[in-house]
Request: fold
Amino acid sequence: MVVIVALALGLALAIQAWIVKPYQIPSESMEPTLDVGQRVLVSRFIYDFKDPKAGDIVVFHPPAGADGDGPQQCGVRRGPREACREATPEESSQNFIKRIVAGPGDELSIKNGHPVVNGVEKTDEPYIEPCGGGNICNLPKTITIPPDHYFMMGDNRGASDDSRYWGPVPKEWLIGKTFATYWPPDRIGFF
Reply:
């Protein structure tokens, strides 16, 4: 009996470590796509076989300075009306969930809360909550996303602490891609 329990526990831990891990949504930054308390499943291995892309909802470690342990920090001095172009070099131990809006080498600015990637404004975003104005909604100065980095934004554009404040995230800090919701029952589905 002890062997069976140990094997089951070992299998459960291995699945969470390498295959699929559950997460609970902690804040309103991804509303209306994901509500506070909603639970999702994240594929931990998918990015071993393919590159992340714009539109993916990912769980990741943010840079130190983004995790609420102090003031939000950009890794370099931000210019006026410019998104943070470089994160601090230290990785936080916390987990965030956001949507990738730009990848390595992309030129990015923000207009009315929408990413403008390589000169094209992404206005076909029916899943977002509009930005609502304010300085963070319009960042017209273009930045370039560094190699192997991804720029993250929450779907609740006016209430999301994201890469606009603390910069693009290195690929190695990505935990995995969200592929399904499993709680509450009325929100069960796949992305």
